[in-house]
Amino acid sequence: MKPVIALVGRPNVGKSTIFNRLTRSRDALVADYAGLTRDRIYGTVREENLDFILIDTGGLTDQTDNMSDLMRKQAKLAIDEADLVLFIVDGRAGLMPSDTDVAQQLRSDGKPVRLVINKTEGEQREMVAADFYSLGLGEPQVISATQGRGFTELLEEIKVCL
Ligand code: GDP
Ligand code: MG
Predict the structure, then answer these.
(1) Which CATH code for domain 4-161?
(2) Which residue ranges does the record assign to the EngA-type G domain (predicted)?
(3) What is the pTM of this model?
(4) 23 Cβ closer than 6 Å to some ligand 1 atom
(5) What distance in angstroms lies between residue 80's CA and the mean position of ligand 2's atoms?
(6) Is this complex's ipTM strictly greater than 0.95?
(7) 81: CA distance to ligand 1 center in Å?
(8) Domain locations in the chain?
């Protein structure tokens, strides 16, 4: 069985952009507004010595409307299926309260989690990372999904985790 990796995080942090880059597809819709991805989307990533299933999810919020509930359920299903969770945060927005909530939830789920900071083009690694250490998820991967920054390192890290 191929390992399964789930992309989890708030809406609009760039999960679908990361999904498309890693799967070399345009299967996941990317948009400038929150909440476009509602279901789970599956893709395959094949790199040297690396072959896994990637799941894109709609995103987790602390809101309590029907759409948020639906997306939360989908994310939960993806996390249950996953061997590894990539928790995506937005380096430009900085640490948000709902990031802390999601981190808490992921820790209680007990799945292996790697923290990934997206939208970091033009930023110094240390500066972006500093904001997120308080999540207690260890050393983050610092990437830019639109520029492709940090993807070699991210794939290396995934290899180590699987
Ligand atoms: P999702 O809701 O988490 O799936 O986020 P999307 O992938 O739909 O992206 C939300 C918005 O952020 C889109 O306008 C993307 O083009 C933009 N975005 C994604 N990755 C990056 C990045 O690395 N840098 C910047 N500046 N914008 C990004
Ligand atoms: Mg999306």
Answers:
(1) 3.40.50.300
(2) 3-162
(3) 0.93
(4) no
(5) 19
(6) yes
(7) 24
(8) 4-161
